[in-house]
Specification:
single chain; globular; 18 helices; Amino acid/polyamine transporter I; mainly alpha
């Protein structure tokens, strides 16, 4: 068996770790500012999970049909046009992985400083976040075996600790908070309102990463056989963890204490276990965020690598070390993540990244209809189960969410559209300065 390929457990771990991180440990506080119904909050995470599972079932067909690394860059290039593929890659490189890597590192630092009671020093938090990104960049720019082992160990630890944490809080809390988890009058209005739709962007961000395995298809053993299972199993596991965690957070701590707060896990742990127990649980939760940053540092650089293989002007990031790892691309992503850490606020990056990535995935899932119409004879090792229901559910719910974000938070939405537009400009600039015939001919041939 080849040592130069990632195996099923490792990539499944990447999928789980890439999702379980910043979003679920931070976004509940923002959601509770607008929605105070326990039932509506749990439905929010369940609907987000349904969207992610439907997306995973659909993108599994596309990824198995075109098993090359690069994720949406590769898929949109083949389904639509090289320009759309480049825009997706551009968005992934500039926002899709660097932004969430920064957010996960910032959350790690926020938890660490809170539980260690060292004060709310902004620069101390930034220093810790930057240090984490640099340390993981060094690990993942080296040997593939070390990279995969670190990721697998941290992900197994993460899932185990979350299960233990939820069980312990449930058993330790004698008098749960008076949160109504069954539907009550007024919940129907909440579930169809703008606040619910906007909150779905936070949730969608938390589920971002369900498609991360397609970014590593070229480095996966038997991708056409294993990719569908990786995507669907990883997403279902995360959906269960998310609903359980948010139930426990609201079960343990008063909504008033959670509203607008970043470290909701630490607050819930303190309410359940007391100050000492809360600090210990908070440290553990902070450590778990390491696997989230780690997963992003594995998957993200592969987009830049594949783009560099196709565009002569980006050939430097395509270079790999003797183990086939795109080391330069890893360090470039680390530099972009550090730039986010040093310059951007948490909530703005979260909403902005969530909107832009959801739009990318929307166009990709739509591609399953386009491809079936254009190339019905194309060999498909895996076909979407219950087609066309999963892609229709995904497109309907995601489209509804994107529309409400544009209505309610136009600045973040328009800024995301601006980044997409800048990608189109960069594509035509790079296409015009290409010095070989590789780009347009190569990309066009890949789309056949």
């Amino acid at each position: 068996m080849s040592t130069n390929k990632f195996r099923f457990p490792t990539i499944t771990a990447v999928v789980i770790a890439n999702m379980v991180g910043t979003g679920v440990f931070t976004s509940l506080g923002f959601q509770l500012l607008e929605i105070q119904s326990g039932f509506a909050i749990l439905m929010l995470w369940a609907v987000g999970g349904l969207i992610a599972v439907c997306g995973a079932m659909t993108e599994a067909e596309l990824g198995a049909t075109f098993p090359r690394s690069g994720g949406e860059y590769n898929l949109l290039t083949r389904i639509y046009h090289p320009a759309l593929g480049f825009i997706a890659g551009w968005t992934s490189v500039t926002i899709g992985f660097a932004g969430p890597s920064a957010l996960a590192a910032m959350t790690f630092a926020a938890y660490a400083t809170s539980v260690l009671e060292v004060g709310s020093s902004e620069w101390l938090e930034k220093l810790l976040a930057v240090g984490l990104v640099l340390a993981l960049a060094v690990v993942h720019a080296g040997r593939r075996r070390n990279s995969g082992s670190v990721q697998l160990v941290f992900t197994i630890l993460k899932v185990a600790v979350i299960v233990v944490f939820c069980t312990a809080v449930y058993l330790m809390v004698d008098v749960p908070q008076p949160v109504q988890f069954s539907p009550v009058s007024g919940d129907g209005k909440i579930l169809t309102g703008g606040a619910f739709a906007v909150s779905l962007i936070y949730v969608s961000y938390a589920y971002t990463g369900w498609n991360v395995a397609t970014y590593l298809s070229g480095e996966l053993e038997s991708p056409q056989r294993t990719l569908p299972g990786i995507l669907v199993i990883g997403t279902l596991v995360v959906m269960l963890l998310y609903v359980a965690l948010n139930f426990i957070f609201m079960y343990a701590a008063p909504i008033a204490d959670l509203q607008g707060q970043l470290e909701v896990g630490f607050i819930a742990a303190t309410a359940a276990f007391g100050e000492a127990g809360g600090r210990f649980a908070g440290v553990v939760l902070a450590v778990l965020l390491i696997s989230t940053v780690s997963a992003m540092m594995i998957a993200g650089p592969r987009v830049l690598q594949v783009m560099g293989e196709d565009f002569h002007a980006l050939r430097l990031p395509a270079r790999t070390n003797k183990d086939g790892v795109p080391s330069i691309a890893v360090y470039i992503q680390a530099a972009l993540a550090i730039a986010f850490i040093l310059t951007a606020s948490f909530e703005s990056v979260l909403l902005f990244a969530g909107f832009t990535l959801a739009l990318n995935s929307f166009v990709t899932v739509l591609g399953v209809f386009v491809l079936r119409l254009r190339q019905p004879e194309l060999h498909r090792p895996y076909k979407t189960f219950l087609y066309p229901l999963p892609p229709l559910i995904y497109l309907g719910l995601t489209g509804w969410t994107l529309w409400f974000v544009l209505l309610n938070r136009p600045v973040e939405g328009l800024f995301g559209l601006g980044v997409i537009g800048s990608g189109l400009v960069v594509y035509y600039l790079l296409r015009d300065i290409v010095t070989t015939d590789a780009t347009e001919d190569n990309l066009a041939s890949r789309g056949k």
